[in-house]
Write a structure and sequence with these properties.
The longest helix has 18 residues. With about 700 residues, this protein is an alpha/beta fold.
Length: about 700
């Protein structure tokens, strides 16, 4: 089942609160443990967020208010304007993931549209939903909009959400004209082509949209002089009473709010009298402006009216600025108005196919993963069971900056190798705090002699090996680090920011060696596309693998992908699909596919298959319509290093939204991973986290 739903809006005053209440009530019919979360809130001064307050009060979820949101709109805008959008997303993910672990389902209320911030909120809603991995329900305000405008607005929203890889569960058009609902529904179904998307149109209930006198009090900060028990009366229009009584009374309509200066005794008395008369409509209340309190004699008269059926409020501003403020007043569902909440829920249930919605909420799960979401989940996995990773290139500035991040985020235990004075000098120069890192100079370590002796015993039958050679090699930081991993003094090693791949892998071959069921060491790159994560192998180690080796790469890549949350569907790539091509290279892939299927019959695997048929569902329908892998492959096995290396680089460079993490080495008894010499600090952080997760898997902790 799905774990979350993100309710996103396309415009302001969409009636999102009604939708939130309706969806929450649906969820609580099937699930006991449901949480509510808003990534970004925009509360009024000194007030709690409206939607959070409404949900927590009405459904008694038992959540702490501070756990239900990540930041304010002002805080989010500052981060984005400072070029720190990734930091903003990480802060949101941190709060959301805490709730995701605690609750069976988390309903997420998107960012409200605020006048002047429309473009920001529209785009950020899509970015946040994508990175949280939530399916989205899109809500649109249809009030005073044509059918074409409504469709166009939703088409723009769909394009933005789909472009960012968000799975769209449905569209709800709210506040539609009663006579327009069928036309809107037909137009949406005809013009919006989103797979498995449901459409719902909810007409406007005028009573829900009318503000109450209590809303007015809150909006204006008004003082209630009389009639506190009548604050739930709804307001339907305003009468500015600046005329004589006989003219003023002609303008009164049902539920009008009378606005007048506090010294207009004649208006106050006539308004009160109209409320008691059967000949005039019932007004909703009286608003006195200018901060003028009625005289004592008038107060005595009003107090004599038993029950005071009309609330009388006072504001300090004069009539003109007060009316300007009132023009922006809109109705809201408040926790202390159960009648309105009941009406809202009734409206939702009357116009939404609740059975279909319940089924979708329980069965639907977004499979899209953004690069930042993958990196976040990777770090969180590494932190769950902290491992000890050794970094032999301890004097490198990128390594030290990465170490600072790893320690600050408590990802793993770290050992840096190199000359201690040189490392400390670099740390001081960079202004870092690496007090939590272990710094080891190999030939001064108490483990040095033990490592030399053991390495000599392992290699003494090799040509040219003697104790002096063993000492020289173990003095090398890469050999020393590899021996640490072999002896269990570290759980994994990451190197290669300065050293070559050969210098990283050769000691691993000699000391750690391959797993009993592995004949080669191979690699995958984890390719983080904008909406999914794929595994490409082997793109870094084996130039021309034979059929047996290619089958081993496929099985190992599937196992590695699964460790990192990628459901393995393996495509054995070739320049032909199925039986369409001939040649030695195709035959090699055919044979490798056969061997892999024989060894792992339950593995979803297809080959030979071309890249387009493996990744594109429309091509797959033509070339391999019955395949369980074609069109939805997640693990791509290339026939040789030339093809694999060039393809991963082409995909990586095709878009600035693609992140390539790796190479991740597989086949060794314990994890050792290689960095590229052009790696960035984030690359190092990710590779260390990957190594830590591999170490967890080797111990059976994943």
């Amino acid at each position: 089942m799905a774990k979350s739903l993100y309710i996103s809006t396309t415009n302001a005053r969409s009636g999102k609160s009604t939708i939130v209440l309706g969806i929450m009530q649906l969820l609580l019919r099937d699930l006991q443990n449901v949480g509510f979360f808003r990534p970004i809130i925009n509360p009024e001064d000194g007030e709690r967020d409206h939607d959070i307050n409404l949900v927590l009060s009405h459904f008694y979820l038992g959540m702490r208010y501070e756990d239900t949101y990540a930041m304010t709109l002002d805080e989010a805008k500052k981060l984005v304007n400072a070029g720190k959008q990734n930091e903003m997303i990480e802060m949101i993910l941190n709060k959301y993931k805490q709730l995701e672990e605690k609750y069976d389902f988390v309903l997420c209320g998107g960012i409200d549209f605020v006048v002047g911030n429309e473009a920001f909120t529209f785009d950020i809603n899509a970015v946040v939903a994508a990175n949280m991995g939530c399916p989205a329900l899109v809500v649109t305000n249809a009030h005073n909009a044509t059918t074409d405008e409504i469709v166009s607005l939703n088409q723009l929203a769909m394009e933005d959400l789909e472009d960012k890889g968000v799975d769209i569960l449905g569209i709800m058009v709210n506040r539609a004209e009663e006579t327009q609902t069928e036309a809107i529904l037909e137009a949406l179904q005809k013009d919006i082509k989103v797979e498995n998307c449901s459409f719902h149109v909810i007409p406007e209930d005028s009573n829900l949209m009318k503000p109450t006198v209590a809303d007015l009090k809150k909006w204006l900060g008004a003082e209630v002089i009389y009639g506190k028990k009548a604050m739930d009366k709804m307001i339907d229009g305003y009468v500015i009473a600046a005329m004589q009584i006989n003219n003023f009374l002609n303008y009164i309509k049902e539920d009008s709010l009378v606005v007048t200066a506090g010294d207009r005794t004649d208006i106050i008395l006539s308004a009160m009298a109209s409320r008691l008369s059967n000949s005039y409509p019932n007004i909703s209340g009286i608003l006195l402006t200018g901060g003028i309190v009625p005289s004592e004699s008038i107060q005595r008269l009003v107090e004599g009216w038993e029950g005071i059926p009309v609330p009388i409020l006072l504001v300090k501003d004069h009539t003109y600025p007060t009316m300007k403020n009132l023009n922006h007043l809109h109705a809201r569902l408040e926790p202390d108005n159960p009648k309105k909440i009941a009406s809202a829920l009734g409206l939702f249930e009357a116009h939404v196919d609740t059975q279909e919605m319940r089924r979708k909420l329980i069965e639907r799960k977004s499979v899209n993963v953004t690069p930042q979401m993958f990196e976040y989940n990777l770090i969180q996995k590494a932190k769950k069971n902290k491992q000890h990773i050794v970094l032999p290139e301890g004097t490198g500035e990128r390594i030290l900056n990465a170490c600072d991040i790893l320690l600050r985020r408590d990802v793993c235990e770290v050992t840096l190798l190199g000359k201690e004075e040189e490392i400390q000098a670099k740390i001081s120069k960079l202004g870092l705090d690496l007090a939590g890192a272990h710094i080891v100079e190999p030939n001064k370590s108490p483990l040095y002699e033990e490592y030399v002796q053991e390495f000599y015993e392992m290699r003494k039958n090799k040509k040219g090996m003697n104790m002096d050679v063993a000492r020289d090699l173990i003095s090398d930081v890469t050999y020393f680090a590899t021996m640490m991993v072999h002896k269990g003094h570290a759980d994994g090693m990451v190197s290669g920011s300065v050293n070559t791949t050969a210098h990283t892998i050769k000691p691993a071959f000699q000391i750690i060696k391959t797993k009993p069921d592995a004949t080669i060491v191979s690699s995958i790159f984890l390719m983080c596309l904008k909406d999914r994560v794929l595994a490409f192998g082997d793109c870094a180690v084996n130039p021309t693998p034979n059929a047996e080796q290619l089958a081993e790469v496929a099985i190992g890549s599937a196992q590695t992908a699964e460790i990192f949350g990628v459901e393995p569907r393996v495509a054995m790539l070739s320049y032909s699909t199925g039986s369409s091509g001939k040649g030695a290279e195709v035959e090699k892939v055919i044979e490798a596919t056969r061997i892999a299927k024989e060894r792992c019959p339950d593995l979803l695997l297809e080959g030979p298959i071309q890249y387009d048929a493996a990744i594109d569902p429309s091509v797959a329908k033509t070339k391999l319509p019955d395949s369980k892998v074609a069109g939805k492959a997640t693990v791509f096995i290339f026939p040789d290093l030339n093809t694999g290396n060039n393809t991963y680089k082409a995909v990586q460079r095709s878009s600035d939204q693609v992140v390539a993490i790796g190479p991740v080495l597989q086949g060794l008894n314990k994890p050792v991973n290689d960095l590229s010499r052009g790696c960035t600090v984030p690359d190092i952080v990710n590779t260390v986290a990957i190594t830590a997760v591999q170490a967890q898997a080797a111990k059976g902790l994943v």
